[in-house]
Amino acid sequence: MDMDSSSQVNQESGHMKYSFIGDTTYSLLLYLLYASEDMLGHTTYYVGNNLSPLALPNKVVMPPMLSFDDKTRLLYRLRCLKYRWSLSRSEIYAQDHLFFSSPLIDNLPYTLLEDCPNFFTNFDYRQHLYNSGNHKERFFNFFTGRIGMHYRGYNPWCKKRILTTDRDKEFFDGLKTYNYEQVNIQRLWDEASEDKRNVILSAYNLSKIDLNALAFRNGVIFSQPLCLDAHFSFSEQRDLFLPYVEKYGAENIVVKLHPRDDFDYKKAYPGVEILNTKAPQQLLSLMGLKFDIAITCCSSAVSSMNKDCQIIWLGAEVDERIVKAYGHVNNPFEPNKQSIL
Questions:
Q1: What whole-number distance in Å separates Cα of residue 172 and Cα of residue 267?
Q2: For the segment 229-251, what is each residue's pLDDT rounded down to a tens digit?
Q3: Which DSSP category does 10 fall into?
Q4: How confident is the model at residue 98, as a pLDDT?
Q5: Do the Cβ atoms of 75 and 99 come closer than 8 Å?
Q6: Rounded Cα distance, 202 and 55, in Å
Q7: Neighbouring C-beta atoms of residue 174, cutoff 10 Å
Q8: Rg of the Cα trace of the chain?
Q9: For residues 301 and 223, what is the distance between their CA atoms, to the nearest angstrom?
Q10: What is the C-alpha to C-alpha distance for residues 163 and 183, in angstroms, rounded to an integer?
Q11: At what angle do helices 135-144 and 70-80 cross, to 10 degrees?
C-alpha cells in the first residue's frame, strides 16, 4: 500500500485502532512483542524503505523525502494530512525521530518505542527539550510537524516511553518528569502464544532461514554501514575487523548484516558465513541462536547477547568519522565485559 491508498486504511468499525510508525527492525520487534494479539489484528503500519519488504498487514509505505529544504518538508507534511483522520482515531506507537514521524504525528498523543537498548542514555537529551517560546524552533516545526526537533519523547505529546534496560530506567527515575514503562523482551516472548510467535516470525520471513546451520560457528560480527555512513573505503572497513577474523578463524564467524550494509564481507573475509535477514539479533537470541563471542564497532545488537558471551566493543572512537556519523555511543556493558586483542 502506498501513500495514495489512505482510503483503505482504518475503515473497520467497532474495534480500537492502533498505529505503528517506524522503520527499524528492532522497534518493530518491540511493538510486536508488546502488543496484544488483538492489537496486532487492528494495527496499521506506517513504515519506510527499511521495513517495506516485511510481511506486515495494513502496511503504508512512506515515500522518501528527496531533499530537506523548507519547501519539500512543507509539501511532505501536507501530503501526510491524508492520514490525520485515521491516526487521530488510533493509539499511536512510534519512533519519533524519522523524517516521516513528525509530519504524521504532529501534535497527536503517542507512545515512544526505543530505537535500541539504552536508547535514551546513549544521547544527550538536553538538546531535544521542548521550548514553546523559541520562535526559531516554532518556525522550523511549521515545516516539519510540531514534534520537529523535539524527538526522543521530549515534547508535550509523548505520553509514555517503552524501554527495556535498567540504565534507561535509572535515567528517567533521576529526571522524575517523564512517564515510562520498562519491559523485558525475553518475558514477553516466553509469555507469547504460539500463534503470536508465528505472526512475529512470519513478519521477518524467518521460516526460510536454517538457524541450526549456524550453530557450529561460535563468533558473530554485528556489522554497521560504515562505508555508507562514515565513508570508509573497502580496505578501511576490512581492516577494522580483520585482526579478530584472523584470531578466531573465518570458518567460526557469522556476520550479522545491518539492513543498510552492502559491504562485501565474503570478499573481505573468505570463509565467513553471512546472516542476511531483516530480523534483529534480539529476535534470533529469543529463538535460541547463541554465540560465544560477539564483535562490533558500536552496534546496540550486542545488548541482546547471553551473559556468558564475550563482547568485543571497538567503540565509535576508533575513527572520528564514526563519531561524526553516530556520536559517542555508550558501551552497554561494564568494563569487565569488554575484550581486546
A1: 45
A2: 999 999 999 999 999 999 999 99
A3: S
A4: 93
A5: no
A6: 7
A7: 8
A8: 20
A9: 10
A10: 6
A11: 60
